[in-house]
Amino acid sequence: MKGIVFITGATSGFGEACAFKFAANGYNVIINGRRTERLAELEQKLQAEFGIKVLSLPFDVSKREAVFEAVQSIPGQWRAIDILINNAGLALGRDLFDDADLDEWDTMIDTNVKGLLYVSRAVLPFMIGRQKGHIINLGSVAGKEVYERGNVYCGSKFAVGAVSKSMRIDLLRHNIKVTAIHPGAAETEFSLVRFKGDAGKASGVYKGFKPLSAEDVADVIYYCSTLPEHVCINDLVLTPLQQADAIYFHKK
Ligand code: NDP
Ligand code: 8X3
Known about the structure:
The chain is an alpha/beta fold.
């Protein structure tokens, strides 16, 4: 066993691809998400395919008490968490600031920002106890530049960037690495969630260029987490070849 990785939002997209990547490389994985059937299915697949151990931990990252209860329930042998991947997150809607739905704003802030804070605080005592660990936060190119109708989603991802920087500073004395990963457009369930199940609108986002895949992002996360002990990638932006930043694309 290479180590233990705790992945939030492992039922789809980047989180699921990370679970496969780390499991394939001999890590035991703690997988989280709200959809329990998907977690059970993933747990079975990973164990059968890679012979590693899996702990499913279903909870909603935005619910403070649920987060701390779930993390406290982690059995002793699973507490030596080497890598925490704060990946659970979402965008809801793509509306102008004055038209956007306030409940959707709340959900994005509660999940993308508060969820990341709660999970990190709940897991940190285990890392501090061992004076080692690596926290990897999923930001976005939307946390580097703001685009029209991105308002609160962009704000939540700028917050991930700022929080990642301050975590890195405050956790220096505990020997804990903090990395923020900022992907550009990747075809996962992200746009389907953003457009509330409208598959046509969701697939339209990726027309005219080759987007990143979940596996591309998982490969980069794996690379960042397997560097020598003294090396920490602080902040990493990756985009498809045809995307320069959050705004500029060369579509064909
Ligand atoms: P997906 O929609 O495919 O996956 C999102 C995951 O987050 C799911 O497993 C979902 O599981 C989980 N999740 C959402 N809300 C919660 C919650 N409240 N509690 C626990 N889990 C939750 O999207 P991606 O894989 O693309 O996105 C992963 C992260 O990457 C997000 O933070 C996103 O903002 C970011 N990102 C995505 C990009 C893209 O283009 N796809 C680009 C840049 C960043 P469940 O529903 O079972 O709870
Ligand atoms: C997801 C990428 O550009 O749709 O964070 O905001 S984008």
